[in-house]
Automatic annotation (TrEMBL):
SUPFAM superfamilies: Putative modulator of DNA gyrase, PmbA/TldD
Segment forming the signal sequence: none
Residue ranges occupied by any Metalloprotease TldD/E C-terminal domain in the UniProt entry: 227-458
Region (Disordered): 92-117
Biological-process GO terms, alphabetical: proteolysis
Matches recorded under PANTHER family: CONSERVED PROTEIN, TLDD PROTEIN
Domain of life of the organism encoding this protein: Bacteria
Protein name (database record): Peptidase
Organism: Streptomyces poonensis
Molecular function terms from GO: metallopeptidase activity
Length: 464
């Protein structure tokens, strides 16, 4: 009897029955993916995969406190289930007291459909998208462009059961589309990406039109030196920067003086105005089009998550409200340490509050500046200021008198997203976007374009 012949909720129940620990959490994640890949205006591969990952968290009480052990494995058969549970228990006994120990969550209503079969994706998700992609190939071929890229759709059904009686289930679809257009001599390249739940709201033809315009801009090449430039950041680039900011917003680290959100002299910067623009950064598990799990799923413990908090209900949270820092991420443990409200991290992020202007309208109102496509290879330089470095990629364009006049060389940048928010002079209309750098980990974002008057292009990059 294999893992696929057992229903996920049955696996969860059986693992809980096998547990000899003082507390137990079991998460069964059912994965299915469908993908298309293409190169040179032709499909190259496609496929469908399915699998299961089982995570067991065992908690063991002792005189000095409660310890936890976590073990995750894929493809667990019925014969391997008890050894997995025992491995988690052994890990807990060997670990010593867990600093983040809390009573396991209780009294969360059972999810409807907990015993139902998992949701699954298939190649049918591309039923309308694939023919439209073929039409985009034909147009690109006629226009002298080559399209490369991939479309990936994933469905994860997560079943959470605990020894305290929780029985929760969430189905999470995730779709990503990335397309590169290249000139036949490969000297020009442009990128576009989209995030989607079901591929019904993405138009390959519209992406090809966007990419064709960018390749046309690149026919004129302009070399610029490093320096500070007025820069228009598109939603994708804004998402990459603010996702990293959220990942760096643990309340405990801030309270202990280790991050950009630490207050000089002690405490955190909660209540401080970070930007003069009336921007609100928020998360909501029920955000239309960006829906995420309404309860916490923690497969490991860290600065912003704790396995003891599994099943904790999640509600709408404003991280920044009208420019003022309102919340930092906390577990129940770190909330108690810092005296701040419990505010776990979320599966989506929305920045809003800008003017009702598109990126194109912001370009039209630019006397001279740079228009970026996306950011790449983002790395942290200094956690105390959240200084990040990275590269521009697939198109940096010079805007003069409201028009794009050519493509310039790529740059390495050095910037802090917190400082950027403080220096931004204009935000446009928020829209769903795909963060390019972090798309393997975080896709559900809605961001506006931002105008920064002095974006620091610290050196010239030879990348494309």
């Amino acid at each position: 009897m294999t893992a696929r012949t057992n229903k996920p909720h049955e696996i969860v129940e059986r693992a809980l029955e096998l547990s000899r620990a003082d507390g137990c959490v079991v998460i069964a994640d059912e994965h299915s993916t469908a993908n298309l890949r293409w190169a040179g205006n032709a499909l190259t591969t496609n496929g469908v995969t399915r699998g299961r990952t089982l995570t067991v968290v065992a908690t063991v009480d002792g005189k000095e406190g409660t310890a936890s052990g976590v073990v995750s494995r894929s493809g667990v058969t019925a014969d391997e289930l008890e050894p997995l549970v025992r491995a988690a228990e052994d890990a807990a006994r060997a670990a010593g007291p867990a600093e983040d120990a809390q009573p396991l969550v209780t009294e969360v209503p059972r999810s409807p459909g907990f015993t139902d079969a998992p949701a699954e994706t298939s190649s049918a998700v591309f039923a309308d998208f694939a023919p439209a992609l073929g039409e985009a190939f034909a147009r690109a071929r006629e226009g002298g462009r080559e399209l490369y890229g991939f479309a990936l759709h994933e469905m994860v059904s997560s079943y959470l059961g605990t020894s305290t009686g929780l029985r929760l289930r969430h189905d999470q679809p995730k779709g990503t589309l990335e397309v590169n257009a290249k000139s036949p001599d490969r000297t020009r390249s442009a990128w576009a990406g989209r995030s989607t739940r079901d591929f019904k709201d993405v138009d390959p033809g519209a992406l090809d039109t966007e990419l064709a315009r960018r390749l046309a801009w690149a026919e004129r090449r302009i070399e610029l030196p490093a320096g500070r430039y007025e820069t228009l950041l598109p939603p994708s680039a804004v998402a990459d920067l603010l996702i990293y900011q959220m990942w760096s917003a643990a309340a405990r680290d801030a309270a202990e003086g280790r991050t950009v959100f630490s207050k000089p002299g002690g405490g955190t910067r909660i209540g401080e105005k970070l930007t003069a623009l009336p921007l609100t950064l928020r998360s909501d598990p029920y955000e239309p089009g960006l829906e995420s799990s309404p309860f916490l799923l923690a497969h490991s413990s860290g600065d912003d998550a704790s396995v003891f908090d599994n099943g904790l209900p999640l509600g709408a949270t404003e991280w920044i409200a009208e420019g003022v820092l309102k919340h930092l991420t906390t577990t129940r443990h770190s909330a108690a340490l810092t005296g701040l409200p419990v505010a776990p991290g979320f599966g989506n992020l929305v920045l809003e509050g800008g003017e009702d202007r598109s990126l194109e309208e912001m370009v039209a109102n630019t006397e001279r500046g740079l228009l970026l496509t996306c950011l790449w290879y983002i790395r942290e330089v200094d956690p105390a200021t959240l200084l990040l470095t990275g590269l521009t990629r697939d198109g940096v364009y010079l805007v003069e008198n409201g028009e794009v006049v050519g493509e310039v060389n790529n740059f390495r940048f050095n910037e802090s997203p917190v400082d950027l928010l403080g220096r931004a002079t204009e935000a446009g209309r928020s829209e769903k976007t795909l963060p390019r750098e972090w798309s393997d980990w975080f896709t559900r974002a809605a961001m506006p374009p931002l105008r920064v008057p002095d974006f620091n292009m610290s050196s010239v990059s030879q990348g494309v």
